[in-house]
């Protein structure tokens, strides 16, 4: 169970890979992107 072990979280971090022990963190969608603030072409100013 060291840095080079392929099946541990520390080994995945060391190798720079992902897997069951180290899942990827998904980016959260911001509320502004969902609403489309200041991007609606129908609004006239």
Helix content: 25-40%
Please provide the ordered H/E string of secondary-structure elements: HH
How far is the first residue's CA from the last residue's CA? 63 Å
Oligomerization category of the chains in this entry: single chain
The dominant shape is rod-shaped
Largest sheet: none
- The total count of helices amounts to 2
Strand content: under 5%
Give the beta-strand count: 0
Question: Any overview of this molecule?
Answer:
- The protein is an all-alpha fold.
- The chain is built from 2 helices and no strands.
- It is rod-shaped, with a radius of gyration of 20 Å.
Task: Set down the secondary structure blueprint.
Elements: H1 9-15, H2 31-35
Give short descriptive properties of this protein:
single chain; 45 residues; mainly alpha; 2 helices; rod-shaped
Short summary of the structure?
It contains two helices and no strands. By secondary structure, the chain is mainly alpha-helical.
């Amino acid at each position: 169970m060291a840095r080079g072990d392929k099946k541990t979280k520390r080994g995945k971090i060391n190798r720079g890979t992902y897997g069951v022990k180290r899942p990827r963190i998904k980016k959260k969608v911001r509320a502004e992107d969902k609403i489309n603030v200041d991007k609606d072409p129908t609004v006239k100013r």
